[in-house]
Amino acid sequence: MASIDAAADVLNGPVNTDRSSSSSTSGQRRSWWPALPTPIKNFVDKFPLITYAPNTPPLRAFQPRNVPTLFITSDLPLVDGISGDPNCAKYQIYFHFLSVPYSTHPATPAASPTLTLPIILPSSTSKTVPISHKHTPKPIVPTSTRLWTYITSLNRSTRHAVPLKDPQVAALLALCDTLLYPAWCILTFPDPTPFLPFLQDHLPLQKSSGAWLGNSQPVREAYSRNADEVLAGARGALDALQEFLLNSGGWEGWFFGGQEPGVADAAVWGFVEGLMRCKWGVMVVGERPELVKWWERVGREVLKRK
Predict the structure, then answer these.
(1) In principle, which of 8, 86, 112, 120 could form an S-S bond with 140, CB 3.0–4.6 Å?
(2) How many Cβ atoms from other residues are within 10 Å of residue 229's Cβ?
(3) Contact, 83 vs 110, CB < 8 A?
(4) Residues forming a β-bridge with 131
């Protein structure tokens, strides 16, 4: 029994008859935080750790606005505030279609989480998007139909446009992305030869003639194919768009018979706008008068062009 009692004394320490001291020791013993070794404690006491407040943002840093901000490529000139990049112009005209106020901000793809433009930063007062920290909205990136869906949500009164989920709209968007966008890239950036090895290695971005291009599948295919084939595909796509338009009531109507402009109209107008800023586009699109008159009509009615 003596050996057991001695072992208990070693494990539990000497018996303390002072109840307050005993309870204090018991509380310390139950603490989950381990005791700091003496050498480390002496070092920390001599060189205390200081936590500094976060740095304030630079004075020129972008600040969220009271309206959605569309970040568009900074390498192409604006005409009537509209970008020359079809992928940016189509979202800009859609904002106008819905009468939703917005702002634009020049950017490079490095500003985008997905390294592609455009992206949308919702307004600082938006309650429909997730918040990152300090009430700053997270950007919405151009994946799938997220940008179309977000812009549409800003004007719930739109009821008479052809919906985004319509199979015809999906087919038209695919036609624009796979046939018209590669042609626009070739016409706008005609000499990507020094960058072809990088494109083939699937780098996220390539810089050609001073402008950044998203490394989308259509772009890679455009520069890996014969330019004549790409432009021939664009001609066929423009023929199909004019046929869709004629079946929808002609240049005075909206695509697929919508009573008001929708996603399909915004996409077509954006790509025609981009093509009409190069000589080939003016010539080839000009051969399709119904499409040209429709494009001009949208410019007059929506952008107040003369």
Answers:
(1) 120
(2) 12
(3) no
(4) 137
